[in-house]
């Protein structure tokens, strides 16, 4: 088993605002990513998956939050680095792509400059070399006529093309880790599939590790090796993709799977959503946060907080994990 | 880009035609009119009629309008009767324009070179002492009337401390050759550096008074605009690329934040001319504003008409420049 490339240990992000209760957006999350592996962070809005990725990248706002724990990347704790050191790593060792490709691109700077500036920054090459590299990158991410596109601006590109350009920027310096935060949410379905296929090709070809942040289990099924399910800022279940889909153990995971429409279900059969919303969460400190929405909740769920314990045989790091007093028994699996 | 400029130029011609019509209509509707302004209230009907005939005021209105356009096209705005009696209005305007341009450029340079950097810093260090102090400073800048500030500056720095000249564009006793009527430029061309320096010293106090409002507005707009841009996703993308803060500031933050600031600067150039009326009066600075003040209080219609047309033209030209600047900064405007 290879050493992990990225090893997140007990990551906590707390938002503090004057006059308001501190909010634990990420509450002790740990996971590993090995070189070349694709790991999913899954959960609904507000579960802490995006905040986790911003904390890894060092992109959280400077004020109004506190971050603790460890983010080990190739033996260095990224959380201990200075702003300057982190700036050198971002874009070179760690790349990131974001959800909305239009707003994530600068409207007044040409695509060429926006790709070339990463190369120029991290590889100390001349402007023309960086531009040539940018052209090659655009070609690589499947943008037709890249030489012309270099001179164009974001508003002249289609949505799929913009996301390809963002991917080109993130991968221009061949980072060893790429974080993709809901990369296909803002795109229509046919483009989604193209972008996912492109991402998959690029990371496997360059042996880049990928952290895929998504609420879409369909994306997880097609991309990820390992899956971490987050709820209310904590990890509730981790497993290899196959095991997770075959035998979800946490009622929340089971609920997520049950709420996906299936091709083989009878026409007119209602979907089975998870009742309630994250606003019903209980504090993790003395209970299970998911209990109010959980079909298998029992009195002990409200009385004490479940720990993350090894579970099943899954996960490439040798252990799956689960945080639940009353796991789903295989017969109850939704489907 | 060329097509964009040509289209704007055509629009500009249209605006000037509408303006000429408005100015013409305004001149005809003035109480008293030019005839009584020249002859006084108690002229006999015969002399009035003679003068009306001489001015073409007895012809049909549309003919008068065409005559009016024809005269303007030939630069004939009529002779002044009060500002400098007997001198051609155009000549007065051209004589005084350089002073006002010098003053406006000086004031605008101060306003921009302090307002934009300070606005950026205040946004970056939001809610710190620097931010709060500069907000209060800019509020004072807008709230204090220009003529009061002008008097205050004059009293403290010219009269009491004696650091700077009290009034005028240049010390009258200084031996200066005037070629372009831009006194600083003249001094630099002829090598009379002391004359150029003297003219520059004369600009400082009126320039500061004139700069107060544009500075405050440019500062506030820059601050608000930078705050908005800092929250944009593309700034986060730039951060995720690990770019240096210098590149992020210049290419990603300021370039986008400058769009609304450009518009405001354009509008301020226009209102600087209006502000110059008061400031130039206080400092007896021989510029366009000073002439406008005299012409409007003493009903010198030839000069007034000249200055109003010129002011309108300045507004239109500055707006064209703003549009071009906008198209240079923002490709979305250019390619539409």
TrEMBL record, chain A:
GO molecular function, one term: ATP binding
Keyword field contains Transport: yes
Main location: membrane
CDD domains: ABC_NikE_OppD_transporters
Compartments reported by the entry: Cell membrane
UniProt cross-references to InterPro entries, sorted A to Z: AAA+_ATPase (IPR003593), ABC_Ni/Peptide_Import (IPR050388), ABC_transporter-like_ATP-bd (IPR003439), ABC_transporter-like_CS (IPR017871), Oligopep_ABC_C (IPR013563), P-loop_NTPase (IPR027417)
Topology with respect to the bilayer: Peripheral membrane protein
Any Pfam family: ABC_tran
UniProt entry keywords in alphabetical sequence: ATP-binding, Cell membrane, Membrane, Nucleotide-binding, Transport
Occurrences of domain ABC transporter (ranges): 8-257
Signal peptide start-end: none
Taxonomy, superkingdom: Bacteria
Record family assignment: Belongs to the ABC transporter superfamily.
Protein name in UniProt: Dipeptide/oligopeptide/nickel ABC transporter ATP-binding protein
Annotated source species: Nocardioides luteus
Upper taxonomic lineage: Bacteria, Bacillati, Actinomycetota, Actinomycetes, Propionibacteriales
TrEMBL record, chain B:
Protein origin, superkingdom: Bacteria
Pfam families referenced in this protein's UniProt entry, alphabetically: BPD_transp_1, BPD_transp_1_N
TM region(s), chain numbering: 9-27, 103-123, 135-157, 199-219, 257-278, 302-329
Topological relation to the membrane, as annotated: Multi-pass membrane protein
Main location: membrane
Localization (cell): Cell membrane
Domain ABC transmembrane type-1: 97-326
Record keyword Transmembrane present: yes
Keywords: Cell membrane, Membrane, Transmembrane, Transmembrane helix, Transport
PROSITE patterns, alphabetized: ABC_TM1
Similarity-based family: Belongs to the binding-protein-dependent transport system permease family.
Entries under PANTHER family matching the protein: DIPEPTIDE TRANSPORT SYSTEM PERMEASE PROTEIN DPPB-RELATED
Protein name in the entry: Peptide ABC transporter permease
UniProt organism field: Nocardioides luteus
């Amino acid at each position: 088993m290879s050493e992990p490339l990225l090893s997140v240990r007990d990551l906590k992000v707390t938002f503090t605002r004057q006059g308001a209760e501190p909010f634990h957006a990420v509450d002790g999350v740990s996971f590993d990513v090995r070189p070349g592996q694709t790991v999913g962070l899954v959960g609904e809005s507000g579960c802490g998956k995006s905040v986790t990725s911003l904390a890894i990248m060092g992109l959280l706002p400077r004020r109004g939050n506190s971050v603790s724990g460890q983010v080990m990347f190739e033996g260095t704790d990224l959380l201990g680095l200075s702003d300057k050191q982190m700036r050198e790593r971002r874009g070179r060792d760690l790349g990131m792509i974001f959800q909305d490709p239009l707003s994530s691109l600068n409207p007044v700077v040409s695509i060429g400059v926006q790709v070339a500036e990463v190369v120029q920054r991290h590889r100390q090459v001349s402007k023309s070399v960086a531009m040539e590299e940018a052209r090659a990158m655009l070609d690589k991410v499947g943008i037709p006529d890249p030489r012309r596109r270099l001179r164009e601006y974001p508003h002249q590109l289609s949505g799929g093309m913009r996301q390809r350009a963002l991917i080109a920027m993130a991968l221009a310096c061949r980072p060893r880790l790429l974080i993709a935060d809901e990369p296909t949410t803002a795109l229509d379905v046919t483009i989604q599939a193209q972008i996912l296929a492109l991402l998959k090709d690029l990371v496997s070809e360059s042996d880049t590790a990928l952290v895929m942040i998504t609420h879409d289990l369909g994306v997880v099924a097609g991309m990820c090796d390992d899956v971490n399910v987050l709820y209310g800022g904590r990890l509730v279940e981790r497993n290899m993709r196959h095991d997770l889909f075959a035998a979800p153990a946490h009622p929340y995971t089971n609920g997520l799977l049950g709420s996906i429409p299936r091709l083989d279900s009878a026409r007119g059969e209602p979907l089975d959503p998870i009742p309630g919303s994250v606003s019903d969460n209980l504090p993790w400190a003395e209970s299970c946060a998911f209990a109010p929405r959980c079909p298998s909740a029992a009195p002990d769920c409200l009385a004490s907080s479940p720990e993350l314990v090894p579970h099943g045989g899954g996960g490439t790091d040798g252990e799956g994990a689960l945080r639940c007093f009353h796991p789903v028994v295989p017969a109850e699996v939704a489907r | 880009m060329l097509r964009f400029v040509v289209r704007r130029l055509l629009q500009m011609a249209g605006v000037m035609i509408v303006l000429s019509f408005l100015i013409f209509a305004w001149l005809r509707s003035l109480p008293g009119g030019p005839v009584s302004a020249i002859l006084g209230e108690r002229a006999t009907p015969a002399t009035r009629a003679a003068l009306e005939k001489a001015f073409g005021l007895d012809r049909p209105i549309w003919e008068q309008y065409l005559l009016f356009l024809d005269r303007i096209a030939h630069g004939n705005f009529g002779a002044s009767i009060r500002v400098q009696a007997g001198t051609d209005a155009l000549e007065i305007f051209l004589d005084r324009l350089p002073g006002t341009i010098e003053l406006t450029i000086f004031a605008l340079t101060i306003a921009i070179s302090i307002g934009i950097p300070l606005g950026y810093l205040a946004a970056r260090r939001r809610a710190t002492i620097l931010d709060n102090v500069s907000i209060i400073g800019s509020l004072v800048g807008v709230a204090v009337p220009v003529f009061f500030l002008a008097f205050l500056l004059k009293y403290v720095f010219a009269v009491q401390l004696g650091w700077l000249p009290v009034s005028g564009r240049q010390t009258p006793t200084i031996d200066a050759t005037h070629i372009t009527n831009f006194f600083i430029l003249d001094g630099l061309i002829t090598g009379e550096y002391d004359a150029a320096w003297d003219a520059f010293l004369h600009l400082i106090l009126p320039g500061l008074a004139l700069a107060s409002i544009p500075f405050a507005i440019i500062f506030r707009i820059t601050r608000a605009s930078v705050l908005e841009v800092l929250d944009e996703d593309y700034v986060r993308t730039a951060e995720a690329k690990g770019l240096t803060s210098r590149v992020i500031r210049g290419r990603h933050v300021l370039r986008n934040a400058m769009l609304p600031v450009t518009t405001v600067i354009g509008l301020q150039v226009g209102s600087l001319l209006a502000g110059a009326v008061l400031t130039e009066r206080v400092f007896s600075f021989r510029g366009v504003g000073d002439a406008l003040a005299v012409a409007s209080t003493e009903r010198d219609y030839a000069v007034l008409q000249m200055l109003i047309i010129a002011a309108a033209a300045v507004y239109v030209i500055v707006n064209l420049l703003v549009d071009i600047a906008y198209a240079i900064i923002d490709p979305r405007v250019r390619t539409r």
